[in-house]
Structures are given as C-alpha cells and as structure tokens.
Amino acid sequence: MNVSTSKTDTGSKISVSGEVDVSNASGLRDAIDAALEEKAPSIEVDLSQVTYIDSTGIGVLVGGVHRAADAGLSLSVSNPQRNVARVLDMLGVSGELGIGE
C-alpha cells in the first residue's frame, strides 16, 4: 500500500493505492490523523487505486469519519473501484463514508 497526501483548495486529499489490510492499515490511519491534526476542513480519501480493502482498513475509514465529525471537519471517501465499493455497500458503510452522495 502507498499513501500520499496533497493540499486542495478545500483541504487535503489522501490518495491510496494497492491493498489495504491489517498489515498496513496503520499507515492510512496515520495519514488521516495528520490531516485531522492540520484541521483541514475537508479531507478526501481517494480509493481509485485500491484493489482490496479488509475490515481493518474499513474500520480505519469509518473511525476517521467519526473523528473528523467530532472535530467539526468533513472526511469522505471517493472513487472506490467496483469490488471495493461492493464490499463497502455490503457492510452498509457507503453512506457513512460519503460514497454516492
């Protein structure tokens, strides 16, 4: 998994590629935490290059959404590949992650 963060007009964009699983999800959590610490008003996590995500990775995303909301910030997930979107839909977290809004 690779994670990179860039600034946008409205906040931060976290671009993720590869597979997100229990062995590396902490890297995604660290990137989300850093964006939250910077108080970026809007944080987008771009999953367009993620080929697989397990329950640990999904937990990191959901936790990030909750921590952002608690801080008065916005975190959403964008562009999941079809197989990743299907898993998020099956688990019922797509709406919470801001997918399809």
Short description:
By secondary structure, the protein is an alpha/beta fold. The protein is built from 3 helices and 4 strands. It has a single domain (2-90), classed as STAS domain (Transcription Regulator spoIIAA, 2-Layer Sandwich), CATH 3.30.750.24.
Which terms would index this structure?
alpha/beta, Transcription Regulator spoIIAA, 4-stranded mixed sheet, 101 residues
- Stretches with pLDDT under 50, minimum 5 residues: none
Q: What is the CA-CA span between the terminal residues?
A: 27 Å
Counted up, domains total 1
The H-level CATH homologous superfamily, spelled out, is STAS domain
What would you report as the Rg, rounded to the nearest angstrom? 12 Å
Placed side by side, the strands forming the largest sheet appear as 1-2-3-4
Quaternary structure: single chain
Order of helices and strands: EEHEHEH
What would the average pLDDT be, to the nearest integer?
95
The third-level CATH topology is Transcription Regulator spoIIAA
- Our count of helices gives 3
- Helical fraction equals 25-40%
Q: What is the number of E strands?
A: 4
CATH class: Alpha Beta
SS-based class: alpha/beta
User: Strand-residue fraction?
Assistant: 25-35%
Characterization of the model:
With 101 residues, the chain is of the alpha/beta class. It has a single domain (2-90), classed as STAS domain (Transcription Regulator spoIIAA, 2-Layer Sandwich). The chain is 38% helix and 33% strand. It has a four-stranded mixed sheet. Strand 1 (2-7) and strand 2 form a beta hairpin. The chain starts with a strand and ends in an 11-residue tail after the last helix.
